[in-house]
Write a structure and sequence with these properties.
The complex is a heterodimer of chains A (about 300) and B (about 375). Chain A has ten helices and 14 strands. Chain A is an alpha/beta fold and about 300 residues long. Chain A has a six-stranded mixed β-sheet, sandwiched between helices. In chain A, strands 2-1-4-5 form a four-stranded antiparallel β-sheet, covered by helices on one side. In chain A, strands 12-13-11-14 form a four-stranded antiparallel β-sheet, with helices on one face. In chain A, a hairpin with a 2-residue loop joins strand 4 (about 60-65) and strand 5 (about 65-70). Chain B contains 14 helices and four strands. Chain B has helices spanning about 1-15, 20-40, 60-70, 85-90, 105-110, 125-145, 170-200, 205-210, 215-240, 250-275, 280-300, 310-315, 320-335, 340-360; strands at about 45-55, 75-80, 95-100, 115-120. In chain B, helix 2 runs antiparallel to helix 7 (about 170-200). The longest helix of chain B has about 30 residues, at about 170-200. Chain B is elongated, with a radius of gyration of 28 Å. The chains are: A alpha/beta (about 300), B alpha/beta (about 375). The interface of A and B includes residues 55 and 107 of A.
């Protein structure tokens, strides 16, 4: 039995029937860390809300722990933990008060499931009497995670937990998720950050309500069909313009301080590239074949 | 039960930690009672009067003393020149002028009749009429005591008795009104806003995905406001008894019972607003414009319902504040028992049940 299963799930909004989720199907195995990767507006939150029984699907169906999200919503609500994308704890209550409140609402106590949250809570402990609204972004998310975990859920839904969090805290956060996964909790997590995809067991790339690809991050990047190179020159704008004129190049775009070049079939040698750029009054500074990243794959799917 | 208590405790934290809310909750009733009690009174006191005494005899002096002794008037000046009247009026110093003509005492003694001239500033007609009545009664009193004899035409003197409020104080009228207003404001607006706030901040989302029943969320959000409102009722009653000298003539338990009923009515209105709106501003606007304003207009507290056009009188029947106002007046001021207010009480119960029914029906167990 799958922990989460969605079949042809569909959601539209408003009178114009704007499609937010378009015929999405995927399964998440028990104990899996599954990532929904996609930009803002891809429909990630709508999927989360349908799976957490907060929204009714307009088509298709979905089960969580074998329970139907429409008819068995009451049972599902007892068994899952949900952390919405927006910080949604009480800013005027202290860390400890928030935790105690959510523990009681779920019919448990902080002590009872302290093992589960200990790793995360030790970092919050020094601030336990501070109001939640006065915590830093990373601390807020850790507290929210604690509150979502406090009742030892079977499935954890985390909607963009690392958005607005600094890189160091993001890394810590993902390590926590790994540890939770090791304890057998199924985790569905969404993120707009492509670099976080490799932390998941499997990912689904989502764009405009449609799934572009579902696989392990490794398989997705390994399946990248064309040669891909990273290039750097003294002028990024000129470089991109020049590369777009090159007939062997199928696509190029900036990627941090580099430009990624995807060739149609045969890559240019470093000498050829250097000469080509010289003709365009550019100076080659770096040129090397690379492994495609999830973001490269995503950009390719969008074409 | 444990969940419920934890929820209620959390709700108290919210209220007690927010200074602004705290001030509105407990400051507003006190401020309103004091403002209505001492500033916004419709009793006319200490009106400045100019007396033109052309008689300068024993009787005119005695009449002036009696006018000065009353708390309604404060003498601006006593002059002999009639031309002063217009000048002083134009300076805006006085509201009324009394002219005592020459030979006042002789006329009274010899002719058994004398005339006085009263000049009033009628730009405020109600005050002018009130002042005329005050002067007339002082003059009548003066005449009865000093000149009881003499042949008189047949007179019918109405014997007035002001029931329940013999001194015609303003307080008996506005204390029930302020109570209705304060409860309306706290229960409707605060409840609606506090529930909608959970929607706005996203905490409602988390609460919905929990074993806690959605309806219980609402009930446990409303419950603290019931307690806070009862505290407010108590503070208003204490103020009116000890500061405004308005005793509670009726059964105090009955007064609390009808207050609790009205609070529940207001809470269910607040819940209804909260289930239909998604932002705190909208909830607040609807509570203020849609609830508080009609409560003020149609409760009979500021404008008598009997004077309204017939359609408006009908509309006033669906305003809960009207029924509460009637009941509080009956219990607190007239000292009547349950048999006198059972009709109003049942109407209020019916209104409450209808509103609660609508809000439960509209209540969403999901987000949309």
């Amino acid at each position: 039995m799958w922990a989460i299963s969605a079949i042809n799930l569909k959601k539209t909004y408003g009178k114009e029937a704007t499609v937010a989720v378009d015929d999405i199907s995927f399964e998440v195995a028990k104990g899996e860390l599954f990532g929904l990767i996609g930009p803002d507006g891809a429909g990630k939150t709508s999927i989360f809300r349908m799976l957490t029984t907060l929204l009714l699907p307009d088509g298709g169906n979905a089960t969580v722990l074998g329970l139907d999200v429409v008819t068995d919503y009451k049972t599902i609500r007892k068994k899952v933990g949900y952390m919405p994308g927006k910080f949604s704890l009480y800013p005027d209550l202290t860390v400890l008060e928030n935790l105690n409140f959510f523990a009681t609402v779920f019919g448990t106590t902080v002590d009872e499931n302290y093992d589960l949250i200990r790793d995360i809570y030790v970092q919050l402990e020094p601030f336990k009497d501070r109001r939640a609204g006065k915590l830093s972004g990373g601390m807020k998310q850790k507290l929210a995670l604690c509150c979502a975990l406090i009742h030892k859920p079977d499935v954890l839904f985390l909607d963009e937990p690392t958005t607005g969090v600094d890189p160091v805290s993001r890394k810590e956060f993902w390590q926590m998720l790994k540890r939770l996964k090791d304890q057998g909790i199924t985790i569905l997590v969404s993120t707009p950050y492509m670099d976080e995809a490799s932390m998941c067991d499997r990912i689904a790339l989502i764009q405009e309500g449609k799934i572009l690809s579902i696989n392990t991050p490794q398989a997705i990047t390994a399946a990248f069909p064309s040669p891909i190179y990273a290039v750097k020159a003294n002028n990024m704008f000129g470089l991109i313009q020049a590369l777009q004129q090159q007939k062997e190049v199928s696509a190029c775009y900036t990627f941090g301080e580099f430009a990624h070049v995807i060739y149609k079939e045969f890559p240019l040698s470093e000498i050829d590239m250097k000469n080509y750029l010289n003709e365009n009054n550019l100076e080659l500074q770096f040129y090397s074949s690379i492994e495609a990243t999830i973001e490269d794959c995503f950009i390719r799917f969008l074409k | 039960m444990k969940q419920f208590m934890s929820f209620v405790r959390k709700e108290f934290f919210h209220v007690l930690r927010d200074r602004k809310t705290l001030f509105i909750l407990f400051g507003m009733p006190v401020v309103q009672i004091l403002i209505f009690g001492f500033a916004l009174t419709n009793e006319v006191k200490n009106s400045r009067i100019l007396i033109v005494d052309q008689a300068h005899d024993e009787s005119s002096k005695q009449l002036i003393r009696e006018i000065e002794a009353s708390q309604y008037f404060e003498t601006e000046n006593i002059v002999a020149d009639f031309n002063q009247v217009e000048k002083v009026f134009k300076e805006g110093k006085i509201r009324v002028a009394l002219v005592i003509p020459a030979n006042f005492r002789e006329d009274l003694l010899q002719n058994n009749a004398a005339s006085l001239q009263l000049i009033n500033d009628a730009s405020d007609p109600n005050t002018a009429t009130t002042l005329t009545n005050y002067i007339s009664s002082i003059v009548l009193d003066f005449q009865m005591r000093n000149f009881p004899g003499g042949p008189k035409p047949i007179q019918i003197i109405p014997q007035l008795r002001m029931l329940y409020n013999p001194q015609l104080k303003g307080a008996p009228n506005f204390v029930p009104g302020v109570m209705a207003m304060v409860l309306m404001l706290i229960c409707v607006m605060m409840t609606a806003v506090s529930i909608v706030r959970e929607k706005e901040t996203g905490t409602m989302e988390v609460l919905l995905v929990s074993p806690f029943k959605p309806l219980m969320v609402i009930i446990s959000k409303a419950f603290p406001y019931l307690i806070l409102s009862l505290i407010n009722v108590t503070s208003i009653l204490l103020l009116s008894v000890f500061v405004l000298d308005l005793p509670i003539t009726g059964n105090i338990l009955l007064l609390y019972a009808v207050s609790t009923l009205f609070i529940i009515t207001c809470l269910s209105i607040g819940i209804l607003i909260s289930v239909r709106t998604d932002s705190q501003q909208v909830a607040m606007l609807i509570s203020l414009m849609g609830m508080l304003l009609p409560a003020l207009l149609f409760s009979g507290f500021m404008f008598p319902i009997e004077n309204m056009p017939f359609p408006l009188q009908i509309i006033s029947n669906i305003i809960p504040a009207k029924w509460y106002y009637i009941m509080v007046k009956a219990i607190m001021i007239k000292g009547l028992g349950f048999s006198a207010i059972w009709k109003e009480a049942s109407i209020l119960v019916a209104i409450t049940l209808v509103i609660l029914g609508i809000s439960i029906k509209n209540f969403k167990i999901r987000l949309a």
